[in-house]
Design brief:
By secondary structure, the chain is mainly β. Helix content is 3%, strand content 43%.
Length: 433
């Protein structure tokens, strides 16, 4: 288990009745409520506090926890209860406040958090609820204060709004630039591309939601602080963060461009795989749909033209199940004509049906970056339309991310200094025409 193995309660029968019907997500469990009486391989470990009060009772089979694991404090109050099978957590795990009320109840399978998880404050008010899948939070958790007020990342990032609202503005170092930002699937990790005003010293930082608040900014676990890196994008399944890096440049003198890399959630965002090796141009970022189609942004075009490039691609896993491969499907460099820079900051919707990107100086008209949307049609991608509803301003608006299965837009804007991150409901800024 990734968390410390401690829990307790008295009667398993009362525990199951308190839970009510077994949730669908819990049907994979095979909890051991009580070992077979008289089994010679089963013993019960008992520990006591100095005052003689029962402190711990653990059922074991062949030396491994198997059945109930219970703990009490020195006053005889239950602290936790857990269920085990053959040395691995399996079943319902519960924590308790000193006043006897449940503080947390979660399901465990094969030693991983898997299924519903919920908690309560000491006054009985709900504190959180959500669900895990094989040890990872399956989407955003909901949180409440002791007074019942909703709080946490889901409230900050997913509350519907018809006009752009500044978010995640607090807690950054003075003068810190947020060039682009991507949020983990559970909304509790922020990956941030930052750097100097002139674009130098590009680095990838992160912030975590822990202990009820956003923690200070730190380098991402996968960051190479000696190399130019940026534009992190979390995959729709939450398992990877894709980013660009020049960490190879020292050993590859013929490739000074940033290439595409990815880090895995399962490794704690530490294990890095290289996705591309393209000395003729560099990748900036990749945005994927759930079906593996994606949109790739490059620092120059594949034909050698110095303008930025954007391409529809497909990501596949190779036979060795490690290094992924990108297959180019179509060019998306001419969604606009006459633009100075080329399309940039692409984000593909989770279902692959539409695309949001940024561009400036369209058809010779001087302008800062605006965000546009294009839809996939039977004949290709539709003519781009500017996002409306205040999402575009006289300043640069860019670096979008789609949250809540594509219904909420998160983006960066130079209309303000500092963190400059905004959210708005997507339906409020997409033209109905």
């Amino acid at each position: 288990m990734t968390r410390h193995r401690i829990f307790a309660f008295a009667s398993c029968c009362s525990l199951i009745s308190a839970l009510g019907a077994v949730p669908v997500a819990a049907q994979v469990y095979r909890p051991v409520l009580t070992p077979t009486p008289g089994d010679p391989r089963v013993n019960v470990d008992i520990e006591r506090h100095p005052n003689g009060q029962l402190a711990k009772r653990v059922f074991r089979k062949d030396g491994q926890p198997h059945g109930l694991w219970q703990e009490w404090d020195a006053e005889g109050r239950v602290r936790m209860t857990a269920e085990w099978r053959d040395g691995k957590g399996e079943g319902v795990w519960m924590y308790f406040h000193p006043n006897g009320l449940v503080s947390e109840r979660s399901w465990v399978a094969a030693d991983l958090w898997h299924g519903p998880s919920e908690g309560w404050h000491a006054n009985g008010q709900k504190s959180f609820e959500g669900s895990y899948v094989r040890g990872a939070k399956d989407g955003p958790f909901r949180y409440w204060g002791e007074d019942g007020t909703p709080r946490g990342p889901a409230v900050q990032l997913l509350t519907p709004t018809t006009a752009p609202v500044s978010v995640l503005a607090d807690g950054w170092p003075a003068g810190f630039n947020v060039w682009d930002i991507s949020v983990s699937r559970d909304l509790e990790t922020l990956f941030v591309g930052t750097g100097d005003d002139d674009g130098n010293n590009r680095r990838i930082m992160m912030r975590r939601w822990q202990r009820g608040e956003w923690q200070p900014v730190e380098f991402a676990p996968f960051a190479d602080t000696s190399s130019a890196e940026g534009t992190p994008v979390v995959s729709p399944d939450g398992e990877w963060v894709y980013f660009s890096s020049a960490r190879h440049a020292a050993s590859e003198p013929n490739n000074k461009h940033r290439d595409l890399y990815r880090a895995s959630r399962a490794s704690g965002w530490k294990l890095v795989e290289r996705v591309t090796n393209t000395p003729g141009y560099g990748e900036v970022t990749l945005s994927l749909a759930r079906n593996g189609t994606g949109v790739l942004w490059t620092d120059r075009r594949r034909d050698g033209e110095s303008k930025m490039g954007m391409y529809e691609v497909r990501l596949t896993t190779t036979a060795d199940l490690r290094a992924p491969e990108l297959t180019f499907v179509a060019e998306l460099n001419n969604l606009h004509t006459g633009d100075a820079s080329g399309e940039a900051f692409p984000v593909l919707s989770p279902d692959g049906s539409f695309l949001i990107f940024s561009n400036y100086d369209i058809e010779g008209t001087k302008s800062n970056e605006d965000m546009f949307t294009s839809r996939r049609t039977a004949g290709g991608w539709s003519t781009p339309r500017r996002l409306t509803g205040g999402s575009n301003s006289s300043e640069s608006d860019m670096a979008a991310q789609l949250l809540a299965d594509g219904t909420m837009l998160l983006f960066s804007s130079s209309r303000s200094s500092g963190a400059r991150v905004y959210r708005v409901s997507l339906e409020a800024v997409v033209s109905k025409e």
